[in-house]
Design goal:
The protein is mainly beta. Helix content is 9%, strand content 40%.
């Protein structure tokens, strides 16, 4: 049995390593400012598009000089990390041997990981002193930004909490969050579900004069307000979109089914989505107990909700086994067809973290079923690419 335990431990370690490698590949160049001065030098912002903290020790960033080898590449020091969905600013003209200025007429920069593999590159154009070149929303397509957001998210507004189990007296709602240090005017922003997306009903418009203070919250009641654009949120889960006044989608989410005592929230505010058991309408989500991490009762089988959910392309499922047993975990599509076998092996008693890789599957809703001895449980996951 000791040999089996070592084997299970090796599997868990391999799964965790795979998750860490995926997270490192989620580090992106996110904003470039090339019109620096002696007091405020040129800089490049990185964005962590994953749901876990990523150590970027040994990553390198450089322009054509570093690419050609005529000067050293700028390397990130030991201990440099970026939190989930967070940003990190690199001052490129810092007086070191690897310093490089960014051409005001435009050029190309590269980012490589600690193994030397190039994981992102961008050719940015000429910029005015009031402009930067950034991904909008964060991690999305590149464009010239008229609002320079050094060290802050480019998509200034995010959906932050969703409650779909409303009543006539307390209808469904979606909370939005200002992730910046500035007051933001959100007049003309729109929020909608599948009906608004398909054009079968109007999108719900935020009224003129709607502003959000720094790190503030705004709750949008989506149902029973008398607005022709009202939409109820499906208790079995669906999509919601948020777009800015120019019609650009700045956030979207496929939220899952939830109980009347749960909401779907970003934890911390603006961070990864998860199903939580503490509803914080109009306030900070803070760090409530994650439903997916509530401890299993010893002596019983336990299958957690996958985390993160939705995911792309990797997610984690925690399993507790009260005794040594053969375990099968299978993924089914929405039609009930088997599409992937994740585990089919004997596992030792105790806790196991299983990695589900959806890189070979299309976006959609899936079911994952665990069978361990006479115990069977099924949960739903959403793959969003």
């Amino acid at each position: 049995m000791k040999k089996l335990s070592y084997g299970a431990a090796f599997m868990v370690a391999a799964w965790l390593l795979a998750g860490a490698l995926y997270a490192q590949s989620a580090i992106l160049l996110n904003e470039v400012y090339s019109r620096g001065t002696n007091e405020n030098p040129d800089w490049i912002e990185l964005y962590n598009a994953s749901s876990q903290t990523v150590d970027i020790t040994g990553f390198k960033i450089y322009d054509s000089g570093g690419k050609a080898g005529t000067k050293p590449k700028k390397e990130f020091p030991a201990g440099t990390v970026i939190p989930p969905l967070g940003v990190y600013v690199v001052v490129t003209e810092d007086g070191t041997a690897s310093a490089f200025g960014l051409s005001s007429s435009g050029e190309t920069v590269w980012l490589e990981d600690a193994t030397g593999a190039v994981i992102d590159t961008v050719a940015f154009p000429a910029l005015a002193t009031t402009e930067s070149y950034g991904r909008y929303p964060d991690g999305g397509p590149w464009q010239i930004l008229k609002r320079v957001t050094r060290g802050s998210l480019n998509g200034v507004l995010r959906m932050n909490e969703i409650y779909s189990r409303g009543t006539t007296s307390d209808p469904d709602w979606i909370e939005v969050y200002n992730a910046t240090l500035d007051t933001v005017d959100i007049s003309g922003y729109k929020i909608y579900d599948n009906g608004g997306k398909a054009g079968t009903k109007p999108k719900k418009l935020l009224p003129a004069g709607t502003v959000l203070p720094p790190h503030g919250f705004f709750v949008i009641v989506t149902d029973n307000t008398g607005d022709p654009a009202d939409f109820g949120l499906s208790s079995s889960g669906e999509w919601a979109w948020l777009e800015d006044a120019d019609g650009v989608v700045i956030d979207s989410v496929a939220f899952p089914a939830m109980d009347v005592t749960q909401s779907y929230s970003r934890v911390p505010d603006g961070g990864p989505w998860e199903l939580v058991s503490v509803i914080t309408r109009g306030g900070s989500n803070g760090s409530p107990v994650r439903v997916a991490e509530q401890p299993a009762v010893l002596g019983t089988y336990h299958l957690s909700q996958n985390y993160p959910n939705p995911f792309n392309p990797t997610t984690y499922v925690d399993v507790y086994l009260p005794s040594n047993t053969h375990v099968s975990m299978v993924i089914f599509n929405a039609l009930g067809q088997k599409v992937k076998e994740v585990v089919n092996a004997p596992l030792a008693a105790g806790s196991h973290r299983i990695v589900v890789d959806g890189s070979d599957l299309p976006s959609g809703v899936y079911l994952y079923r665990l069978q361990a001895g006479e115990f069977t449980a099924t949960r739903r996951m959403v793959l969003l690419k």
